[in-house]
């Protein structure tokens, strides 16, 4: 344990509670130093020879924490995500929250040695797509485990802690810090003028469009680089980066350093012949880069390393760069104060704004952080700008929508008493009676449908039900394939195509569906089965519907499994290269879940493992990237 470290007031308060054996929830601004508390728990557990689990909302964040913690904790660190398993029996185990939830329901005995669970970004329980995973993890948390929850600033943190206390009957201490160690100073670009008082926006009369060079000049002239420039679109990030191509932010000496580092990293990750890496090279030599989910994971890692070296001066990036990844800068720029939320574009939430703004101001380096907001009065009203920046952060609200797999796992253990679980949820704790009744009805409807489809018979799970309970998110579709013995009739290429079809989610108006002849019948079968499932979900008024299969990646994964080079398979899809890797890795994850199911035959397990081997190579191999990193 690091006894020499000097802690801030809130860090010391949290650590004192932890040392006294209490669970703790910490609410503090981004950049305040919450990770130091997590590191204390890890050190304490290692000293006491007990296990600790660290969960994160994103695989990229899990991977980064694995690298970061390895520096201090060496071989005591392991990682377990859907596509990576390294040192999986380590006393300190990093995993995605989905993996943790699955272990609680499927294999709780494997958690016996772990007495602490650290939930990083615990406010993610509010996420519409994945918040259910956090809620289920907290509801079904093993009784022997204590919690350290790390959260962005949320106003109802005490309500959140009270809910956990109510279901686990043990104290949860709340620690709140509202002040950032590095204060933020806000600026606004409007009608191509930059001002530092929000009231001045009302008084601007000359109507001129905002120009990128104006804001960049302003930042550079005041010595406020490096800068993270947040945009809400991948293409936009690239376009703006190349718009700055005429700038050079580096001295000759720094140019030599950064290019040596870039070329060395590209060689290390086998990116020297990669088209995007070569295109990005032109920007890197000027101290500019972009970073988004459409890039190859290895190339994103190269950019991240360059940024932490402090040689990159301006990086254009999407918002995932703000979530937990430790990449602080002197300044942050918002290209816009509106973004896409699920199904429509709306003004930023205050909490999301500060998740990104919090990257400005490097602790121990800067005395102040600088946040620049580009404001277009045609797109956003003055009062909304004020609300985003000076408003109260939004409360965390439950997004519970229990999956079919969770219901099957609960039914196996508790039969019809599974309904007793709902009153333990945050949803029940926060909701009015009519919302509680609807949530319960939805659970009941899902159970009825599972019984109708033959997952449960005579009060026990059938082999179909045992298979489906292992494949979270794709239970009904894959359950039908299992029941009809279709998997047994597919070769490795067919299984790979099916996995990619199940996980793929096309962008709005995306075309590019190229299905090889071997996959045409498989796609028809998938669509017919899904349509039947959809009709039954309509009958039971179940929402949202089970995800539809999409075979946009069929030709690409078919060619990849046949040994084709990655750059050549991109001809068969209009999906970004980084997304192709992500979907291939997601395919591997669902295949692993199928292979680990107790219901799968030995023959099927072998065929699935062969399929995984054919997909999990070169740039797709996440474990290789982490080992080599």
Structure description:
The chain has 629 residues and is an alpha/beta fold. It folds into 3 domains: 9-176, 3-Layer(aba) Sandwich (Rossmann fold), CATH 3.40.50; 184-390, P-loop containing nucleotide triphosphate hydrolases (Rossmann fold, 3-Layer(aba) Sandwich), CATH 3.40.50.300; 404-628, Sec63 N-terminal domain-like fold (Orthogonal Bundle). It is 47% helix and 13% strand. The chain contains 27 helices and 19 strands. The strands form 4 sheets. The protein has an 8-stranded mixed β-sheet with strand order 4-3-5-2-6-7-1-8, sandwiched between helices. A 7-stranded mixed β-sheet has the order 10-9-17-14-11-13-12, with helices on both faces. It has a two-stranded antiparallel sheet with strand order 15-16. A hairpin with a 4-residue loop joins β3 (77-80) and β4. α4 crosses α5 (131-139), α21 runs antiparallel to α23 and α21 packs across α26 (602-615). The two termini are 26 Å apart. The mean pLDDT is 93.
Give descriptors for this structure:
Rossmann fold; 3 domains; globular; 629 residues; 27 helices; Sec63 N-terminal domain-like fold; alpha/beta
Topology summary:
Layout (H helix, E strand, L loop, with lengths): L8 H11 L3 E5 L7 H13 L3 E6 L2 H15 L3 E4 L4 E2 L5 E5 H10 L7 E6 L11 H9 L6 E6 L5 H12 L3 E5 L7 E7 L2 E3 L4 H4 L8 H10 L5 E4 L3 H10 L8 H17 L6 H10 L3 E4 L5 H12 L5 E4 L13 E4 L3 E4 L2 E4 L2 H8 L11 E7 L6 H9 L13 H11 L11 H5 L2 H20 L3 E2 L2 E2 L1 H6 L6 H9 L2 H4 L2 H12 L13 H23 L14 H8 L4 H4 L7 H20 L5 H14 L6 H7 L1
Parallel strand pairs: 1-7, 1-8, 2-5, 2-6, 3-5, 6-7, 9-17, 11-13, 11-14, 12-13, 14-17
Antiparallel strand pairs: 3-4, 9-10, 15-16, 18-19
């Amino acid at each position: 344990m690091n006894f020499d470290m000097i802690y801030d007031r809130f860090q010391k308060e949290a650590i004192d509670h932890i040392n006294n054996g209490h669970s703790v929830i910490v609410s503090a601004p981004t950049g305040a130093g919450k990770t130091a508390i997590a590191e204390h728990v890890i050190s304490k557990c290692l000293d006491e020879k007990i296990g600790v689990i660290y969960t994160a909302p994103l695989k990229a964040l899990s991977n980064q924490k694995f690298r970061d913690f390895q520096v201090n904790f060496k071989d005591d660190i392991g990682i377990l995500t859907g596509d990576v398993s390294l040192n999986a029996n380590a006393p300190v185990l990093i995993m995605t929250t989905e993996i943790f939830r699955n272990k609680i329901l499927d294999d709780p005995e494997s958690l016996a040695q772990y007495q602490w669970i650290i939930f990083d970004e615990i406010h993610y329980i509010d996420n519409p797509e994945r918040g259910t995973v956090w809620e289920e993890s907290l509801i079904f948390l093993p009784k022997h485990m204590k919690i350290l929850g790390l959260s962005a600033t949320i106003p109802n943190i005490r309500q959140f802690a009270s809910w956990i206390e109510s279901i686990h009957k043990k104290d949860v201490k709340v620690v709140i810090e509202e002040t950032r160690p590095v204060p933020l100073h806000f600026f606004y670009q409007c009608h191509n003028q930059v001002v530092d008082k929000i009231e001045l926006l009302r008084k601007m009369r000359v109507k001129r469009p905002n120009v990128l060079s104006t804001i960049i000049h302003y930042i550079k002239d005041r010595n406020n680089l490096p800068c993270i420039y947040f945009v809400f679109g991948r293409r936009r990030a690239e376009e703006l980066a190349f718009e700055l191509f005429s700038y050079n932010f580096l001295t000759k000496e720094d140019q030599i350093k950064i290019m040596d580092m870039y070329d060395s990293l590209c060689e290390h990750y086998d990116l020297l012949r990669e088209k995007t890496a070569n295109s990005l090279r032109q920007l890197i030599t000027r101290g500019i880069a972009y970073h988004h989910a459409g890039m190859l994971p290895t190339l994103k890692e190269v950019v991240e390393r360059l940024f932490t070296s402090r040689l990159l001066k301006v990086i254009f990036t999407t918002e995932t760069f703000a979530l937990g990844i430790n990449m602080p800068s002197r300044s942050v720029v918002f290209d816009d104060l509106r973004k896409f939320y699920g199904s429509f574009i709306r003004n930023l939430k205050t909490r999301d704004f500060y998740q990104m703004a919090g990257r400005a101001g490097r602790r121990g380096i800067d005395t102040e952080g600088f946040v620049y907001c580009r404001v277009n009065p045609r797109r956003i009203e003055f009062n909304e700008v004020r609300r985003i920046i000076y408003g109260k952060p939004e409360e965390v609200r439950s997004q519970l929508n229990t999956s079919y797999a969770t219901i099957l796992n609960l039914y196996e253990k508790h039969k019809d008493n599974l309904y007793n679980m709902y009153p333990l949820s945050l949803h029940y704790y926060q909701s009015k009676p009519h919302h509680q009744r609807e949530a319960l009805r939805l659970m009941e409807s899902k159970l009825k449908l599972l019984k109708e489809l033959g997952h449960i018979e005579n009060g026990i799970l059938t082999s179909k039900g045992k298979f489906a309970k292992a494949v979270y998110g794709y239970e009904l579709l894959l359950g039908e394939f299992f029941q009809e013995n279709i998997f047994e009739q597919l070769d490795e290429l067919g299984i790979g195509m099916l996995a990619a079809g199940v996980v793929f989610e096309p962008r709005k108006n995306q075309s590019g569906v190229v299905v090889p002849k071997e996959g045409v019948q498989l796609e028809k079968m998938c669509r017919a089965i899904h349509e039947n499932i959809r009709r039954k979900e309509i009958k039971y008024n179940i929402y949202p519907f089970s995800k539809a299969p999409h075979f946009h990646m069929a030709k690409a994964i078919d060619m990849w499994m046949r040994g084709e080079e990655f750059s050549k398979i991109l001809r068969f899809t209009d999906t970004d290269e980084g997304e192709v890797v992500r979907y291939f890795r997601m395919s591997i994850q669902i295949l692993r879940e199928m292979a680990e199911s107790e219901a799968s035959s030995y023959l099927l397990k072998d065929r699935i493992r062969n399929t995984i081997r054919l997909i999990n190579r070169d740039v797709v191999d996440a474990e290789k990237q982490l080992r080599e990193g």
